[in-house]
Amino acid sequence: MSDDAPRSEPSGTASGRRLPGRGLAKGLAVTLRTMTRRSVTDQYPDALPELPPRSRGVIGLFEENCTVCMLCARECPDWCIYIDSHKETVPATTPGGRERSRNVLDRFAIDFALCMYCGICIEVCPFDALFWSPEFEYAEEDILDLTHERDRLREWMWTVPVPPALDPAGEEPKEVAAARKAAERPDPPEQPGTEPGRPGGRGPRREGEA
Amino acid sequence: MTETTVGIGGAAGSFGAGTGQGTDMVLNIGPQHPSTHGVLRLRLVLDGERIAAAEPIVGYMHRGAEKLFEARDYRQIIMLANRHDWLSAFSNELGVVLAVERMLGMEVPARAVWLRTLLAELNRVLNHLMFLGSYPLELGGITPIFYAFTEREELQRVMEEVSGGRMHYMFNRVGGLKDELPAGWTGRARTTVARVRSQMGRLDDLVLGNEIFRGRTRGVGRLDAGTVHAYGVSGPVARASGVDFDLRRDEPYLAYGELADVLRVVTRTEGDCLARFECLLDQVHNSLDLADACLERLAELPPGPVNQRLPKVLKAPEGHTYAWTENPLGLNGYYLVSRGEKTPWRLKLRSASYNNVQALVELLPGTLVSDMVAILGSLFFVVGDVDK
To answer: B143 to chain A: which residues are within 8 Å by CB?
Structure first.
C-alpha cells in the first residue's frame, strides 16, 4: 500500500518520517499499562451488580392496589398483560342502601417474553399497583415460564427499591406540591356536618384523579 | 500486494474474463456471517479475488415499523422508534417527539431542552464507542473493543441511573422528559464524562497509530462526494468524504443553536476507511465537550420542570411535518401525517443506515474480498436501521 497524500498523523509523530513499528510499540505500551492496573471486570455471579433504583428489570404487582381498570393492559404497546376478573356484589352496608358491585381480580399475568420493558403500564396505572424492580435473574428454559402469574408478580414487590431523591433544581413533584398546598391552606370556617381537620371534606388530590 | 486467481471446475475456463463472460463466481456473504453485523446479506460477483459487482440484499429484519406506528399512540411509538437503531435509542426517540411537538406548537421547558441535548450527546458517544471498538475487531484486533466497552459501561451506568434502561431509554415524552433527574446525577455525569475523556487516548494509541490498522484502511474504499450526494449518504461517513453537512450546525434543533462555539463539525477529505474512523473518533471528543457544556448550562438554569402536563388523550392536529435530526449514524427523519387522531395516519421513517449501506454498490466493485470486511465495517450501520 503506497502512502500517497500527506495526512495528519496521530499526535507525537509530527516530525517527518515515523520509526517503523512505532505505532505497534505504542499500542503494546497501552496494553502493558493496563496490565498493571486492577481489572475492571465484575465477576458477575459472585459479585452482583449495583443497579440504580430506576433500573427496569422486572415488574412487580401490588395486588391490593389493583382495581382491574385494565388501563395497563390496554396501553401496553404489544399487549403482553393478561387480566381476568369477575364482578361481585357487595351487600348494602346501611339498611335500605344500594347493593354495590366490585371487580375482583382472577388473573394478572405479564408475559416477559413479549414485554418490551417500556414501562408504559407502570406510568399509566392510576392506583400505583405496578412497580419496576431492578431484579433481572429470571431466565427460563421454557419460554412459557416467562409468563409470570400474579403470585410471582407479587413476590417481585418485595424487591422494589425506594425511588431516588430528586434533583433540587427540578420542580416539586405534583403529589408533594398538592399535599403542601393542602397543609398550608387556612382552615375553612366550620360547617355543620364536616369533621374537624378535613378541610372541605376532601383530602389532597391524588395523581390520576384528574 | 499479491493477487491469486484460483479457478475450479467450470470457473477455470473463465480466467481473466470480466462479468458476463464465462462462469462468474457468485459469493453470498451473510445473512449469517461473522464479518457482517447482524443479518445484512451481500451478493458478490467475483472475478478471482476481485469483486466485480456487489449487491446488498436487505430486509431480513424487516418488522414493518412504519405500519406498526400507525396503530400506536405517540407514547407507544417512542417504544418502537427507539429500537430500529438500537445503538442510538435516545436520538431516535427525539425525532418522534420533536415532530409531534412541532405539530402541537408545544413549547418544551428549558431544562428539558438542555437535558435532551446532553443525553443525545452521551448517546452519540455510546454509539461511536461501539463502532470504534467493533471496527478494529473486524480487522483482527481483539483488544480495542474491551477498552471501548469499559467506557461504554461507565456511560451506560449514568444513562441507566437517569432513565432505567441501558439501551432502550424510553426517556423522551412529548413535551419533555419522563422524569426529573435523581439528586446528584449531574455531578456523577460530569465525573463520568471526564473519566471517559481521559481514557480516550488509549484508542488513539492502540488503534489509530497502529501500522497494521492504517495499512488495512488507508486508501481503501474511497467514497467520493458525488457518490455521497447520489446515494443520500449522511453522518460521519459523508463527512469523511468532505461533505460538510451537520444538522446540529446547519439547522439547529434542541439547544445546538446556543452551542455553536463548542460544536465542531469534524470533516475529512480522503473518504477512505481511515478517514471514516478518524471522523468517528474526533466526534467522540467533540461530543464529550458538548456534554460538558450542557452540564454547565444546566447548572446555571433556574429551577423548573422537565416536562409539560399532557392531556389524557394526546392528539396531534391535522396536518403534516418533517422532523430530522443528526443521529449518531447520520440523518434520521420522521415525516408525520396526522388526521387529528391519537395515532398518526402515516409516519415515514428515513433512517441513516439504509442510505449508507446502498453506497456499497459503488464502493465494493474493484476491491479485493479481504478489503470488503474493512469497507463494510467502516460504513458504520446498524442492520435494524437498514431493515426497520
So the answer is: 31
Regarding pTM above 0.90, the answer is no
How many domains does chain A fold into?
A: 1
A1 domain residue, yes or no: no
ipTM of the complex: 0.77
* Ordered alpha helix ranges (H), chain B: 65-69, 74-81, 89-104, 110-138, 144-163, 185-203, 211-217, 225-231, 236-239, 247-250, 273-300, 352-358, 360-363, 369-378, 383-387
Distance CA B15, CA B24 (A): 10
E-strand ranges in A152-194 read none
| Whether A21 and B163 lie within 8 Å, measured CB to CB | no
Cβ of A169 within 8 Å of Cβ of B143? The answer is: no
- pLDDT for A119-130, tens place per residue? 999 999 988 899
Closest CA–CA distance from residue B306 to any residue of chain A (Å): 7
CATH number of the domain to which A136 belongs:
3.30.70.3270
Go through the domains of chain B in sequence order and give each one's CATH number: 10-57 (no CATH), 65-387 (1.10.645.10)
Contacts of A164 in chain B (CB under 8 A): 161, 182-183
Q: Residue A13 falls within a domain, yes or no?
A: no
Cα B153 to Cα B89, B129, B133, B192: the distances in Å are 16, 10, 13, 10
The pLDDT of residue B301 = 87
Mean pLDDT by 10 residues, chain B (388 residues): 55 48 73 69 85 86 89 90 89 92 89 92 93 88 88 92 90 89 90 91 85 87 89 91 89 88 88 91 92 91 86 86 91 90 90 89 88 87 85
Residues on chain A touching B305 (C-beta within 8 angstroms): 170-171
User: Is A3 close to B165, i.e. CB distance below 8 A?
Assistant: no
Give me the pLDDT at residue B20, please: 47
Range of the domain at A126: 58-89+99-159
Q: What grid cell was written down for B180?
A: 426529573
Which residue in chain A is spatially nearest to B111 when comparing CA positions?
A: A170
Which of B337 and A90 is assigned the larger pLDDT? B337
State the cell numbers at B277. Answer: 474512523
CB contact under 8 A, A171 and B306: yes
| Contact across the interface for B160 and A1, Cβ inside 8 Å | no
Write down the pLDDT at residue A200.
Answer: 42
Q: Do B179 and A54 touch (CB under 8 A)?
A: yes
Chain A neighbors of B212, CB-CB under 8 A = 24
- A204 part of a folded domain: no
Closest Cβ–Cβ partner in B79, B143, B181 for A166: B181
